[in-house]
Amino acid sequence: MATTGWKMTATCAFQDVFKGLTAAAWTCVLVAPLAFAQTGTTAPASEAAASAVATGAAADGVVAAVTDDVAVAVSGADRIVAGSSLSLSDRTPGDLLAAAGQLEVSAPVDGDAVLTGGEVRLNAAAARNVYAAGGRVQISGSVGRNLRAVGGQVELGSNARVDGNATLFGGDVNLRGPVKGSLRVGGGRVLIDAVVGGDVDAGAGRIELGPKARIGGALRWRSGSELVRDAGAQVAGPIERLTMPTPEAWKGRDRDGDHVRRASMSWVAGAWWTTGLMLIAALAWAAAPATSVRVTKTLRERTGWSLLTGFIALVCVPVAAVILFVTIIGAPLALVALLLYFLLLPLAYVASAAGLGQWALLHWKPEGAARTGWRIAATLLALVLLALLGSVPFVGALLAFAALLVGLGAIVLQFAPQRAAEPSGLSPA
């Protein structure tokens, strides 16, 4: 049970980091395509990238430059930089978003810093929050607010300082620089050998407190092994080892009503999700009836191809986006592709419901199959049916996954060249 406990704490730490990185990723998705869309030329040399930075600093517009080894987008004071190997030595007056195989930031960042790469090193001060992810993450500078970092190896050096809270997750985590606020940390091995002003929540296979450890608040820890504490380590607050409740305890809580409450919350969330899909379905039929008819026809007549195409798209689009992103020049296209990909997933589920509803209309009420009102009503009923079937253990998950694949494939097949225009018995209402 103790092992399960530290895994839970590690998962919480990872989720905290992931939320920040997700927000940063959406920022990239929205800003990068805009930036690169407004540049009409490809810079011939690395100096052009530096020129873009200088131009962006002087003008409150969007400037971008792409060279053989680096891509830079500037929007006002903010910078977006990508390359195979980057060493940033110029001050960033706003936010910095950087990605590279090897990334080193040696100049101050006056805003937030979002850093990702195979090896990430922050050697300068960041005035606000820092989000970092990589195979190896090293922080040697100061962080004005909060730090969120995840990696195979995560290290805060003795020269590092975090003025807010820190959340760290990694296979091997070493904290040697002070954290003014609280610390949440998870991983395989965790070493705390610095001052932490607030509480510490730690979960790892092995947790060590070094001789310089000074924890100003409580220490709550979960591990499959005993806490390793140096004689010089100090903890001002209580030390509490947390364990997961036994199965009997969980059963007792279920009898007290927790199981009912969790089930109720799950049903409420599912109801909201289904309601959102219903709204999307109604808008799709009302705004694009002709396209919706073509998608449902593809679902009925080419179900096998739709299933196969949906599976290929589900797997290959993210892989292709990663490959494009690595090429640097294709990074904006990769970001747009991923954005469209995630937008298509709920539409794919709606498309399957629309196909099911249209099939039912053609069999039991053919005269209603050409009317928008009946199409919407049938699709909404199909969504409710899919939601109810989806709640069935195991089988429901398979049905939902199949609906996603078929709908996605039918949408993708609309972009395939057609042999000839086939007359349809259905006309858009």
Keyword list:
46% helix, 26% strand, 18 strands, alpha/beta, 13-stranded mixed sheet, 429 residues, disordered N terminus
Summarize the structure.
The protein is of the alpha/beta class. Helices cover 46% and strands 26% of the residues.
3D architecture notes:
- The protein has 429 residues and is an alpha/beta fold.
- It has 2 domains: 2-244, no CATH class; 250-413, no CATH class.
- Helix content is 46%, strand content 26%.
- It has 9 helices and 18 strands.
- It has helices at 2-37, 46-58, 247-255, 258-287, 289-301, 303-326, 331-364, 372-390, 395-413, and strands at 62-66, 70-75, 78-88, 96-105, 113-122, 130-139, 142-143, 147-156, 161-162, 166-175, 183-192, 195-196, 200-209, 214-215, 219-223, 228-229, 234-235, 239-241.
- Strands 1, 2, 3, 4, 5, 6, 8, 10, 11, 13, 15, 16 and 18 form a 13-stranded mixed beta sheet that branches. The chain has a 3-stranded parallel beta sheet with strand order 12-14-17, with no helix packed on it.
- Helix 1 packs across helix 7 and helix 4 packs across helix 7.
- The protein is elongated.
- It starts with a helix and ends in a 16-residue tail after the last helix.
Taking the alpha carbons of the first and last residues, their distance comes to: 60 Å
Unreliable stretches covering 5 or more consecutive residues: 1-66, 419-429
The secondary-structure class comes to alpha/beta
* Chain-averaged pLDDT: 76
The major pleated sheet works out as: 13 strands, mixed
Shape: elongated
Total domains? 2
What Rg do the Cα atoms give? Answer: 27 Å
- Total number of helical segments? 9
Helical fraction equals 40-55%
Counting DSSP E segments of at least 2 residues, the number of strands comes to 18
Please state roughly what percent of the residues sit in beta strands, choosing from under 5%, 5-15%, 15-25%, 25-35%, 35-45% or over 45%: 25-35%
Q: Order of SSEs, N→C?
A: HHEEEEEEEEEEEEEEEEEEHHHHHHH
